[in-house]
Amino acid sequence: MSATGFQKRLTPTRICAMKGGKPIVCLTAYTTPMARLLDEHCDLLLVGDSLGMVLYGMETTIGVTLDMMIAHGKAVMRGVSKACVVVDMPFGSYQESKEIAFRNAVRILQETGCDAVKLEGGEEMAETIAFLTKRGVPVMGHIGLMPQQVHTAGGYRSVGHSEHETSKIRRDAHAIGGSGAFAAVIEGTVEPLAREVTSAMHIPTIGIGASSACDGQVLVSDDILGLFNDFTPRFVKRYDELGKRIAAAAAAYADEVRSRKFPAAEHTFKRRP
Ligand code: KIV
Description:
With 273 residues, this protein is an alpha/beta fold. The chain has twelve helices and eight strands. The chain has a single domain, classed as TIM Barrel (Alpha-Beta Barrel). The chain has an eight-stranded parallel barrel, surrounded by five helices. The chain binds 3-methyl-2-oxobutanoic acid. 3-methyl-2-oxobutanoic acid binds next to strand 6.
């Protein structure tokens, strides 16, 4: 039997085995061309529900639907040959019951061909994650700052400052570590706590705004490329300013169209002799 596409890509099991080794590299991807560009540089590609804000101009991720995640998951899978692809379960698709979570996770796996799903939540979601993983659905957890809880958390802000938050995140890490998840995102969490839970958990932690103590790092690609300008969180490092370069290219094109410099002879079809 020849190796299938999925066996050529990094699997959730192999990502889990990277715990404590070389840092795991993860970026978000939402489209085929971006997945093609990022694939060879990343261990993990995350089709994050951040796409609601980044691509669709939503104010939060709450309005993202399962159909949106599946459409973008399919697009990313067309551009990947090496990285492990994880698709976010959107708000409302997994919280109601573990059976509904299973049904929706299966839709994501079957319709996109991705390797795993990610869902937000600590101790309250551990039973659901165990239900999914025991039935063949690889799951990445997500603790710390949880953007889908923006309305009950009172906004986006780093966590782990108070004793109450610290003990909640400790309990969340313990529960997710024992739930069968192969890895967990830790978002917006103070450094000493991110360090503590990373060394306590036997699965890799993938940090976003959670310090270099984590086993890997994830950022939103559009943020590091300078494509998303609505706001730049403190934990983002910009590696380029593509937004400014796109605006400059569009301005140059507009000038040339208006001055009839474009299209030139080389862009024009001549009648064959
Ligand atoms: O939706 C997303 O992109 C995420 C990451 C930034 C962790 O959940």
